[in-house]
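During the reporting period the student researcher (J.K.) took over the structure-prediction task from the postdoctoral fellow and processed the backlog of single-chain submissions. One of the processed entries is reproduced below for the supervisory committee.
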Amino acid sequence: VIAYLTAEFAKLDSPNRLSVVNRPPSKPWVADTRNQNFTAAKLAVRAVFGADPDLTRESGSIPVALTFEEVTGKSVLLLPIGGCDDCAHSQNEKIDRKNYISGTKVLAAYIHHLANV
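J.K. obtained the following structure tokens:
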């Protein structure tokens, strides 16, 4: 990839310089979904959306989740707020009002259920 980019950039005869840095990837984060944190989150999602959550392995763009877990020694989870069409991290990123309101309800229900599990 670097060789290709360098060759293509050279064809531009640009006065600018090209610098490509190959950084190591972030460490993967996999959570234990059987703890109190996830139990409360599952109950919250069920209460707000009326369905059990899909526990997906995504959010690769949030590598700090693993760092938070390592530093605090506590379980970390990511609660759903946005929709699949929200274009996260793009120039067209958005969140629908309905999703924002539902996400707020999920957070409140999560805190309620976490206090009771």
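The committee noted the following: The helical segments are 2-11, 36-49, 64-72, 97-116.
J.K. will present the remaining backlog at the next meeting.
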